[in-house]
Amino acid sequence: MAEGSDVNMTGAPSERECVVLANGHDNVAPDSEERAAKRLKVDGPAKLAGSNAIEEPVNVPAKPKENSVVENTMPAERLRDAPANEDDVKRPDVIDSRDRRNGDAPIKKEYLIDVSASKNSSEAVDDDEAEGRGGNANGVPRQDDRDAGGKARGKKDKRSKGQNTDRTFGKFDDALPLCNSRAFYPEFSPRECKYGDRCKLCHDLRKYLKEGRRDDVETFGGKCPVFEQYGSCPSGWKCRFVKSHMQEVEREDGRKELVLTNNNNNKLAEKAKADGTAEENGESGEQKHEPGNDEPEERRLGIVNVVPMAHKIELNRRRTNFTKADQYIKWTNHEAELGNEFHHRKKGQSTEGIDDLRARFVDPPFKPSEKRRLYFGPETPTLAPLTTQGNLPFRRLCVELGCEVTYSEMALSMQLLQGSKADWTLMKAHESEVSPPKFSPGKAFVFDTYNNAKDLKFGAQISGNQPWMVTKVADVLNRFCPHLRLIDLNCGCPIDMVFKSGGGSALLESQAKMERMIRGMNVMSGEIPITAKIRTGVKNNRPTATQLLGRLAFGAREHRERLGAPGCAAVTLHGRSREQRYTKRADWGYIGECAALVKSYNTQKDALTDTVAEPDASTLPNAKDGRMYFLGNGDCYSHVDYFDNINKAHVDSVMIGRGALIKPWIFEEIEKGQFLDKSSSERLGYVERFVRYGLEAWGSDELGIGFTRRFLLEWLSFAHRYVPIGLLEYLPPSLNDRPPAYRGRDELETLMASTNYKDWIKITEMFLGPVHPGFQFIPKHKSNSYEAEG
Ligand SMILES: Cc1cc2nc3c(=O)[nH]c(=O)nc-3n(C[C@H](O)[C@H](O)[C@H](O)COP(=O)(O)O)c2cc1C
Ligand SMILES: [Zn+2]
Ligand SMILES: [Zn+2]
């Protein structure tokens, strides 16, 4: 398939080594039954929910030493050499599920439900449909504006098969919304409302509390989880747990005043100071005005990259200063025109003519700054950028479970440049994402000047269809978001809205444009490195990744010498074409070929730096010894897949999408090198954590609860697909297997496997109370939206 590759990666299951179901034997027998006999069978049902040893691995013969996972050998390697577990060796019928793939999850008989009479087993799910998030590319707002109350309505997109495109979530706000000039202050000393008489919101606190809102939520023992955590609650009076952090105090004149309890003014004050939103007059009434801005989103704790409203307004009014970017863009445009002429020059044009043309090329007005170095290795499993799903609370959960690198949801360049709140919201990260990723030197290539202490986990992903657009976006991201590891250009998005506008995967076939985009971003992003996420190609039978990689590594032949490399510090390849749907497996053979190619490029670059032909150091992606990191992506669903991919395809690291959505503890499995059979109660514990993180990020008011519920439901639309491994006949499980109808080991496990979204709503109500009367949830996949039968 690919030119210049000498790697033989078949990826065929029959030729794979069995990595984790290790029993000390190598997997050599040609006959699959015989080979299977050397493998281990999964034990009976794991411990039931509620037992303590829920994390006990299912049938992992050798337990890795505590904390030795990355420091010593990689788990997969260690497990391969692990001594056989006696019990397991005795079993004759030992099978690796990869020998038996037929698309159905191999659920043990005792858990199957006979559904011959009713429609119940899950339909194939087209995960491509999940990538969109409503709205369109032309600036029409989307419905998931997490800071605008979900009130925006996107224009109806063309209906596509299997997807509920016209999704609404109802309106979830207070009946009588309280004005922010009242929301955070004691009853007798509110702020003056900026909007005066024009303000339609409620200014009477008692009225609001009495008739303007629903009753407090009774979950979490009625105690505000945010207040419990931080000693203050940024939702103020609007909090649906406000009873737990308010009181009525009697003043000297006998008047009774409602005040908010605040055990921790300091944290908010510190944040306000750090954000530059601290008040100047320092007015401090007896019950203290909380310092900070009246924008609720700017008050929340533990969240970074919160871009002040003023910046967004400036962008929207086109008052942001883009002098430098404009200068560069002018040069790019000139360059593009000349490039065009050069390409379309008449055959047989005289050499003088060509030289004339050449002479008209001018150097760019400036060069990229020195970039912060990146690192990707086996110890940095990476969460994929995931529209809607990869929201801040979900990423925070993944990081807690061992994820080392995270990406924002894809933001649209045009929207960012227009100051769209919804898209700037996507740049926010949790402070846990700002800590350095794990780093064990010796695992993968590392730059001499890599500084792990300066590195962080969170990167931004943007899409765009024009070089000027993404160049400006890189500029503002660099100026407005202090905590970005990298800026990734989406060159893989398959959805029509993006593709038809020339962005996302359309860029795979506009390589000159893509190169200009990367160059422009790299020039304007300051010290933030630029990366790209690509697919194998647009069409199935026309893979373009190999060609593209050369271009990203060195730039087009014609300007290589003059301009140097475009400055792409890492590439992630999703091993599917745009055309291909998720039903086919990602092509890890092709990913392996591409990894080998990148490796050879890196060697060439090393050679280049040793010769007189050394290119201008400042133009290389990672300066002088510029090299690209290379990540593979597609279908990773356990540590087995993860280390298989790393060991066989020789990628630096693996990016994980749906696997993490279905079981976020995949990162823990990778860290520990073993399967984890999580009980239903433990899984519900993750749901609870998500809820807490949601309330912290979006607020514990009606709106924040609505968003938390909505995004929890989105997550559950993936999480319910998890089949507990204790229920499986064989391991490893496959991401693409569909389970027949089955029951869990307890009621909760059965509930959590329900494909009916009404059951998912029940799960949200366990933590968030009854849904708002106007609340609606229509799952993205039609296959999930059928009603309960009987
Ligand atoms: C719900 C969903 C949303 C996605 N959103 C994005 C996105 O915003 N940007 C992107 O580059 N890829 C996106 N993808 C693609 C994933 O990043 C990833 O490439 C793909 O899911 C394959 O990896 P997997 O097999 O591990 O899921 C999305 C995929 C899904 C399922
Ligand atoms: Zn007002
Ligand atoms: Zn609260």
TrEMBL record:
Enzyme's top EC category: oxidoreductase
Top-rank taxon, per record: Eukaryota
Molecular functions (GO terms): flavin adenine dinucleotide binding; RNA binding; tRNA-dihydrouridine47 synthase activity; zinc ion binding
CDD domains on file: DUS_like_FMN (cd02801)
Documented EC number(s): 1.3.1.89
Pfam families for the chain: Dus, zf-CCCH_DUS3L
Biased amino acid composition, Basic and acidic residues: 77-112, 285-300
Reaction(s) the record says it catalyses: 5,6-dihydrouridine(47) in tRNA + NAD(+) = uridine(47) in tRNA + NADH + H(+); a 5,6-dihydrouridine in mRNA + NADP(+) = a uridine in mRNA + NADPH + H(+); 5,6-dihydrouridine(47) in tRNA + NADP(+) = uridine(47) in tRNA + NADPH + H(+); a 5,6-dihydrouridine in mRNA + NAD(+) = a uridine in mRNA + NADH + H(+)
Keyword tRNA-binding: no
GO-annotated cellular components: cytoplasm; nucleus
Keyword Flavoprotein: yes
Record InterPro entries: Aldolase_TIM, DUS-like_FMN-bd, tRNA_hU_synthase_CS
Compartment(s): Cytoplasm; Nucleus
GO terms for biological process, alphabetical: mRNA processing
SUPFAM superfamilies linked to this entry: FMN-linked oxidoreductases
Names of required cofactors: FMN
Family: Belongs to the Dus family. Dus3 subfamily.
Name recorded for this polypeptide: tRNA-dihydrouridine(47) synthase [NAD(P)(+)]
